[in-house]
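I am still getting used to backbone structure tokens and would like to learn alongside you. Label the sequence line and the structure token line clearly, so we can match residues to local backbone shapes. Go ahead whenever you are ready, and we will take it from there:
>
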Amino acid sequence: MVPQKVFWGLLKFIYKTINSKENINTWIRDLNSDAKSAVSVDCVIFGYDEKELNVLSIDCNMPPHIGKKSLIGDLVKVHETLDQAGQRILKQRTGIEDLYMEQVSAFGNPNRHPLGRVISIAYYSLLRIRNYEIVDNEDKHLEWIPISKINTLAFDHNEILSVCLSRLRKRLKERPIGFSLLPKKFTLIQLQKLYEIILGFELDKRNFRRKLHSTELLIDLNEFQQDVSHRPAKLFSFDYEKYNAKKEKQTLKFDL
């Protein structure tokens, strides 16, 4: 026999648990109301044109940001992964397929979107503009805008752009991503100019070349520029085979 005092104490505990503010019914209600939100993907596409670093923008048609430029983005569909959504959005908006994109960060300010609670996952990519044809039409108004001329973008896209640009600059120093923006045969002047444009500041020529040669990933082609009005410079190429071998052996050191 359970003592009467213990019985009533247990009954009181069960009653309080059932009617407490935090029980399974409350959690389900919250999931269907306050905790419910949408997820979007914003793609920051950086483009190099040998003169400036640009970002691909699109006209915003959503109040109160009509008339402003925005990054390329859309909501994630129920059946998609984030990566799949990013590739779909890129193809639908620009016609570009299978472009490598790196996930950077999530942006979840409760007031970032005029339609409600929308959490955005930002991706960035880097390409050589002349190598890609952007498919545009009258209702998209895609435009490459130099980073130096970016004004106020729609939503919180200035913040997203800034964070992705910082990630790009970090990756440029850690990985040889810049070589994909150059011809197969390039000069050290072309390479340094690329780094300076993306990083946003001038580099010391001697120090840059010293670090570059220390990677042991440049191939001296024993060739010189042709048909130039100035003194022909030496041509080099990047040793991707050696780079991949070092990476597999975990002996890679690439820090510019």
About this structure: The domain at 175-248 is CATH 1.10.10.10 (Arc Repressor Mutant, subunit A). Helices lie at 4-18, 24-31, 82-94, 157-174, 188-199, 205-214, 240-248.
